What does this fold into?
Amino acid sequence: MHLIRGFGLFAIILTGVSACFNPPEFAVEPQIEYESIQYKEYGNGFDAEYDSLILTLSFKDGDGDLGLDASEDGEPYNNKFYYLLNGKYLNYQTKRTNPDYDTLPDFVKPYNCINWEVYSENNVVKDTLYFELNPDYNNITVEFLVKNPDGTFTEFDWKEAFNYPNCGISFDGRFPILYKDKPGAPLEGTIRYGMGSIGFKILFSTKTLKLRIEIKDRALNRSNIIETPEFTLQ
It folds into this structure.
């Protein structure tokens, strides 16, 4: 979380889950539907320090294997993939000096929050290591789409918008395990997913937005992709 402190800080919540354990026939791939979205200004949201967007979805899943604990960081749910070269982590010096690696992405000066991690000891920078983010670390993906004057929409890329150390990684996240009572049973209910940022009003003001959402189950089956209706923060 320290990478996005102060601008674009986000959190996720699961405030309501209802489940029906009658034996309906659902696909093993999760299915989601849009329910609602709410905007709460500073001091009036799920996190009083940030403006909040609260998204409500309904879901169905045939085997109920939905949710990840925050502590789960082993494959396939690890956050990052690091690369080894002769038993050592691939660093930026190698990228600069070895032509085999000159196609790796460069820094966004002075550092890059997407592919280059600064390794420090006692607040002294020791090295800069290459990594790639694991798309399966999170189980909910949220894309922000901004309306253009011609009526089309363009994704606002939080990963690219800010330089180190004010990096906005994304508003993707994790919702917790939902099936603890009856694992393997069909499951349906609602999820409320909150996103907080001091940057919503600054970035989007009177712009027209919509969100694109997808979830994944523990077997990495992907749901259908849905979009919210258009909305503004006014």
About this structure: The two ends are 28 Å apart (CA to CA). The first strand starts at residue 31 and ends at 40. Residues 147 and 153 are 4 Å apart (CA to CA). Confidence is low (pLDDT under 50) at residues 1-21.
